[in-house]
Design a protein that fits this description.
The protein folds into three domains: 116 residues, Copper amine oxidase-like, N-terminal domain (Copper Amine Oxidase, Chain A, domain 1, 2-Layer Sandwich), CATH 3.30.457.10; 129 residues, Heat Shock Protein 90 (2-Layer Sandwich); 78 residues, Alpha-Beta Complex (Actin, Chain A, domain 4), CATH 3.90.640.20. Helix content is 19%, strand content 37%. It is built from five helices and 22 strands. The chain is globular. The N and C termini lie far apart (50 Å).
Length: 371
């Protein structure tokens, strides 16, 4: 039987999400279940002085760039962003606090660094530890701590802006399989402290119901997979099939202007070469508790379909993804989307247009395009 329980530490597992965080791209992170290395301590990386603007103030901070990902020195977070950070050499845990959030980072994993944000475990790019300094992946960290990240190519300057968020608190609830059952863990958000209690309750009830329905379906998939795998092992005594798992991990992508946008990545692994991720996004009007349509999210622009199609085609032409079949148009009634700080992001499922290795194709369309 599945149960709702308060957060507690689980055994570590192979990561669901691999992260490619090129600072020059204003694109949210893509889910792809590819294992990452532990905290990088063996390779000596070149440290540069990178230009940043932090809430409009120009600063230069120690930075490492590796394979398109940008890392910032942990101490800089204390000095420039007002976040409180702590490093425990005994437990090898980094703690970052601020903006109603607490993130802990465990550096000792075999495959991927374990991040915990407000009670939800996630996996991400390992920090780099070099010459006594811990360097954190900029976009992964700061977007989850309530900051907007941008890049100005002509000046080669990274911009960091503290986002003015809605006055509410995000808490994590979860559904977990009982002991002895196949591993199932679904996290989902619940909001508190918002001025409109009725809308808040409507959103919370909806997200809880959605999580319960997904967990129930996932449990059914796990039961079927485990039965099939047991039969395979019975027929082939030398065969050992890994245990099946089902996980749900959410990310708040936008919490501004009386709107709340998020997605939940549901990952099902049934013992094969890899699992599959299904991303389910929600965007709410906090004044009513109702979900926004794609056109409403696109500022109500009557030409929103053409604007989105043009943005997708331009990004494809620039090499963002390799589609296996021609793209013609989004289906406005079915197109999935979420909001981020400066853009509406439309995305497609794994295998909709691309090979598995490309993850979840997503295309940001700046809000300014709809003005």
């Amino acid at each position: 039987m599945m149960k709702h329980v308060p957060f507690k530490k689980r055994n570590k597992k192979t990561p669901v999400i691999a992260l490619a965080t090129a600072i020059a791209l204003s694109v949210p992170l893509v889910a792809a279940p590819i294992p990452q290395a532990a905290a990088q301590e063996t390779t000596q990386h070149r440290v540069i002085t990178q230009a940043y603007t932090v809430d409009g103030t120009h600063v230069e901070l120690p930075t490492i760039n590796v394979d398109g990902s940008t890392y910032i020195g942990l101490r800089s977070l204390n000095n420039q962003l007002g976040l409180t950070t702590n490093w425990s050499p005994t437990t090898r845990v980094v703690t970052v606090e601020g903006n109603k959030r607490t993130m802990t980072v465990e550096l000792s994993d075999t495959y991927a660094t374990t991040y915990t944000l407000n009670g939800q475990t996630m996996y991400g790019e390992p920090p780099i530890i070099q010459d006594g300094t811990t360097y954190m992946p900029v976009r992964f960290l700061l977007e989850r701590m309530g900051y907007g990240i941008g890049y100005d190519a002509p000046s080669r300057t990274v911009s960091i802006t503290k986002i003015v968020e809605n006055d509410l608190t995000i808490e994590t609830a979860k559904i977990e399989s009982a002991e002895g059952e196949p591993s199932l863990l679904v996290h989902y958000p619940q909001i508190s402290g918002y001025a409109n209690a009725e809308a808040q309750a409507r959103i919370n009830d909806f997200l809880k119901q959605q999580a319960e329905e997904r967990a129930e379906a996932g449990a059914g998939d796990l039961a079927t997979a485990e039965a099939d795998n047991a039969q395979l092992e019975a027929e082939s005594p030398d065969l050992s099939v890994p245990a099946s798992t089902f996980d749900g991990t959410y990310l708040i992508t936008y919490n501004e202007q009386d709107k709340l946008s998020l997605y939940v990545d549901y990952y099902l692994y049934t013992g094969g070469a890899h699992g599959i991720t299904d991303r389910v996004a929600y965007t709410f009007d906090l004044t009513t508790g109702e979900q926004l349509t794609l056109q409403q999210a696109a500022e109500g622009n009557a030409n929103y379909v053409d604007i989105i199609n043009d943005a997708i085609e331009r990004q494809l032409a620039a090499g963002a993804y390799t589609f296996m079949e021609p793209f013609t148009s989004i289906d406005p009634a079915e197109q999935r989307f979420f909001l981020k700080h400066d853009a509406l992001v439309v995305y497609f499922g794994v295998y909709d247009y691309t090979a598995y290795a490309e993850g979840i194709p997503q295309f940001p369309v700046p809000f300014t395009a709809f003005k």
